[in-house]
Design a protein that fits this description.
Bound molecules: 1,3-dihydroxyacetonephosphate, iron/sulfur cluster
Helix content: 40-55%
Strand content: 5-15%
Radius of gyration: 20 Å
CATH topology of the largest domain: Rossmann fold
Number of strands: 12
CATH class of the largest domain: Alpha Beta
Length: 319
């Protein structure tokens, strides 16, 4: 009988499809993917690939970004329910009302947002390019940053730049416990603490390295003087970390209580069986209505241009 992995390989060939997977997917999904990465890398690869079909094993906003950047491709997601708490915290009407309070400001929106919210945004950022994007914004422009308040507060402090923050958060990263992290550090004084900027400030204060998933993975790969790492991000990242550093002790930062809350419930909706089904039926495919897509593409294009070192122009007053 044909194995699940063999089925995926056959269907990929049949449809000339590529599979992209985020670091938070399970190890078995990362292993069948053509490319694994953080949200910026997946958006860049999705745009660059020539395959007419791209299956994104991640969450829906990531697939929407690929679709917005490459409208002619069929972009599949294994499960359309793979949402994100940041998307849930920033419904279009609420974000629009907030944005309207500051019409002179530029709206900088984390890619962890819906296409509709992107359509009322001036520039998008990911956690790996946010500093570069913010540095490109003229100093005399007021900045709105949403929907992740922790990432926004971290960037405002690091860049010494005032920003008005939208009050959203990631339900996974806010559950890392500063108190329990402090206790764990006492037991592992040699360990380097790595944290994603979606964590609360009290956790970030204890971190030696703060960055995107790919930045944290790079630290583990390249910092060979260190053999112990405490990692405050979703546990899918350990798959690549363990592979890169089998010699190192890799400990996940503790969450509040005894829940499995440092797993993203949305990322973990994806399974190999759902990937087979999606490639067999070419569904579910993400679709963004044309009127929203035309506007939502602009902040993503601006983000990609600045990331590539190209100049951009900034819009005036929001109306
Ligand atoms: P990265 O951009 O660092 O991959 O993060 C995406 C994300 O959803 C973090 O929770
Ligand atoms: Fe969204 Fe948090 Fe899951 Fe990332 S880890 S996809 S921010 S809910």
């Amino acid at each position: 009988m044909e194995s699940t992995v063999a089925k995926i390989q056959r269907l990929k060939k049949q449809h000339n499809a590529a599979i992209l997977a985020h670091f938070y997917e399970t190890g078995e999904i990362q292993d069948i993917a053509d490319h694994v990465g953080d949200s910026l890398y997946l958006a860049q690869m999705g745009e660059k690939l020539e395959n007419p079909v791209v299956l994104l094993a991640g969450v829906v906003f990531m697939a929407e970004s690929v679709k917005l950047l490459s409208p002619r491709k069929t972009v599949l997601v294994p499960d359309l329910n793979a949402g994100c708490s940041l998307v849930d915290h920033s419904p279009y009407d609420k974000y629009l009302a907030w944005r309207r309070q500051y019409p002179e400001a530029l709206a900088v929106t984390y890619v962890n947002s819906s296409a509709a919210v992107k359509s009322i945004t001036d520039v998008c950022v990911t956690s790996s390019n946010a500093e570069k994007i913010l540095a490109a914004i003229p100093k005399d422009r007021m900045i709105l940053f949403g929907p992740d308040r922790n990432l926004g507060a971290y960037l405002a402090k690091k860049l010494n730049r005032d920003m008005i923050l939208y009050p959203g958060s990631c339900e996974v990263h806010v559950l890392f416990s500063a108190k329990r992290l402090f206790e764990l550090k006492e037991k592992h004084p040699q360990a380097l603490v790595l944290a994603h900027p979606e964590c609360d400030e009290a956790v970030l204060k204890q971190a030696d390295v703060i960055g995107s998933t790919s930045r944290l993975l790079d630290e583990v790969k390249t910092n060979t003087r260190i053999n112990e790492f405490i990692v405050a991000t979703e546990d899918g990242i350990f798959h690549q970390m363990r592979r890169a550093r089998p010699d190192a002790l890799l400990i996940q930062a503790p969450a509040e209580g005894s829940c499995a809350c440092n797993q993203c419930p949305y990322m973990k909706l994806n399974t190999l069986d759902k990937i087979v089904h999606s490639l067999e039926t070419l569904s579910p495919a993400v679709d963004v209505p044309a009127d929203i897509a035309d506007q939502a593409r602009l902040p993503l294009d601006r983000m990609m241009a600045i990331t590539a070192g190209k100049p951009v122009t900034w819009p005036g007053r929001f109306c």
